[in-house]
Amino acid sequence: MACNSFIFLDRSFGTDRSRLDSMLDYYAKCGFNYQILLYPEGTDKCPLATERSRKFAEENELVHYEYVLHPRTTGFVHMIQNMRKAKYIDHIYDVTIGFGDCIVQSEVDFAVHGVCPKDVHYQVRKLNIADLPKGDKELGEWLVELWKEKEEKLRRFYMLDRKNRMFENTPNGREYEMSNSVFAGQLLINFFWVITTIMWAYGFFMIPYMCTFAIISCFLFFCIQRHWGGVEWLAIQKFNAQQRVKKTS
């Protein structure tokens, strides 16, 4: 993930702000069209997070949500406004996910308990950034209202019988179902990674030079992490140095 310049946060805006600014500036100037997957809730809806959200709602005289957590508006507003200034954002895709029969809370549910939903429903809305409020306060309020809509949307979704669960039609929207070709492609991808993992594991234990290569790679990543804070920050530092050279030349 670090090699792909993922944003790692401490979930404290005081320390995360500079990281966000550096990363977003890099995204805007590097020449690639990055897509940022953002969870305004900050975490998954586990029992601990749900209890924290409930206490937050009580302290701020808000309604306690049953299907979502209260969103964190500060980071969302900062990122959107930052990307607006850099002219690096045109649209936001609002995604709501509903599970048809059972909800997988963590990898443990899937791997140990065998919990796996038979169908997963996605409602995706494409929102033009120009249609969102311009001010910080108004943008934060917009996000809060959006989450209220999500809570009600999911409430109606889960009130339906499991076999009939689906989201209400999005205005001017279209329905998509996974085709057989896409399903076959996903099976091939899973098969590829399973075989690749087995081959790497075999090579690590049975082929000396592969084991040596893995150890050297881990050591290099450890050194980069200690000195620069991660591969992504090394890349950003080199990129910024190149940008300064271009400006002076």
What do you see in this structure?
- This protein has two domains: 2-177, no CATH class; 178-248, no CATH class.
- The chain is built from eight helices and two strands; from the N terminus they run αααβαβαααα.
- The protein has helices at 13-29, 47-59, 73-85, 107-111, 136-159, 180-206, 208-228, 231-248; strands at residues 91-99, 120-128.
- α6 (180-206) packs across α7.
- The chain starts with 12 loop residues before the first helix and ends with a helix.
- The relative contact order is 0.10.
**Elements, N to C (H/E):** HHHEHEHHHH
Based on helices, strands and strand pairing, what is the structural class? mainly alpha
Specify the helix fraction band: 55-70%
Low-confidence stretches: none
Biggest beta sheet summary: 2 strands, antiparallel
Protein name: Acyltransferase C-terminal domain-containing protein
GO molecular function, one term: acyltransferase activity
Domain Acyltransferase C-terminal: 113-166
Family: Belongs to the 1-acyl-sn-glycerol-3-phosphate acyltransferase family.
